[in-house]
């Protein structure tokens, strides 16, 4: 099973081929212009965490991801949410923006503009990470805030499946892909472990997890 981690800047995933523009990655390339060094339809799974928002030539990069994935191959993707201001909209290194409809233009909205590409993904799930008190609101009010206010959702996670033929049915569940995303995200390891890292007390662990939850990180 061939698995790729795209955007292994500070971390790598054991058992994956780790790719980044940084020289310490297993494969160093520029997603804006370099083709992925894999044959067509040869990859089972691609994981990418907070990377595609940095890619200026987005359609080229996405076409390469699609090219190397098998029919039914999985793309697990995490990116900032479009209306996050502090760390997204004003970030000069972010070239692309995403919300829950971003991949519909490669699915059921394909052809809504005069575009020509072969990219086709089925969105099995997308997960929104709400921030602070917005987590506690009832869904209709929370949804209204998301659509009309800034800084309601911090990031978004997708489970996508490459569709290359209509003759072979694809069967992936949202539950399955969410579990896989979480497993891979937790498996990431730093290239340079911090020398000052110390073991946390149970209270510190609970406080850290609560803070991450409240800030929309988990």
Shape: globular
H-E string: EEEEEHEHEHEHEH
Radius of gyration: 18 Å
Question: What's the CATH topology name?
Answer: Rossmann fold
- Structural class determined from secondary elements: alpha/beta
Architecture overview:
The structure is a single chain. With 218 residues, this protein is of the alpha/beta class. It has one domain: 3-Layer(aba) Sandwich (Rossmann fold). Helix content is 24%, strand content 24%. The chain contains five helices and nine strands. Strands 4-3-1-5-6-8-7 form a seven-stranded mixed beta sheet. Strands 2-9 form a two-stranded antiparallel ribbon. Strand 5, helix 1 and strand 6 form a beta-alpha-beta unit.
Concise description?
With 218 residues, this protein is α/β, with parallel strands linked by helices. The protein has five helices and nine strands.
Keywords:
single chain, 218 residues, alpha/beta, Rossmann fold, seven-stranded mixed beta sheet, two-stranded antiparallel sheet, 5 helices
């Amino acid at each position: 099973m061939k698995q790729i981690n795209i955007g292994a800047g500070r971390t790598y995933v054991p058992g994956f081929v780790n790719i980044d523009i940084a020289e310490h990655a297993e494969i160093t390339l520029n997603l804006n212009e370099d083709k992925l060094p894999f044959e067509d339809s040869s990859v089972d799974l691609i994981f990418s965490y907070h990377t595609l928002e940095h890619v200026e030539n987005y359609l080229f990069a996405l076409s390469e991801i699609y090219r190397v994935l098998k029919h039914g191959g999985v793309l697990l993707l995490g990116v900032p949410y479009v209306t996050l201001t502090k760390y997204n909209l004003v970030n000069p290194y972010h070239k692309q923006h995403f919300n829950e409809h971003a991949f519909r233009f490669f699915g059921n909205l394909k052809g809504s503009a005069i575009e020509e590409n072969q990219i086709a993904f089925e969105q099995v799930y997308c997960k929104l990470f709400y921030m602070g008190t917005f987590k506690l609101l009832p869904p209709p009010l929370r949804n209204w805030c998301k659509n009309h206010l800034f800084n309601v959702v911090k990031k978004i996670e997708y489970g996508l499946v490459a569709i290359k033929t209509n003759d072979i049915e694809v069967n992936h569940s949202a539950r399955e892909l969410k579990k896989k995303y979480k497993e891979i995200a937790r498996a990431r390891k730093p290239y340079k472990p911090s020398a000052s890292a110390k073991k946390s007390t149970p209270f510190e662990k609970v406080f850290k997890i609560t803070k991450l939850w409240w800030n929309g990180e988990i």
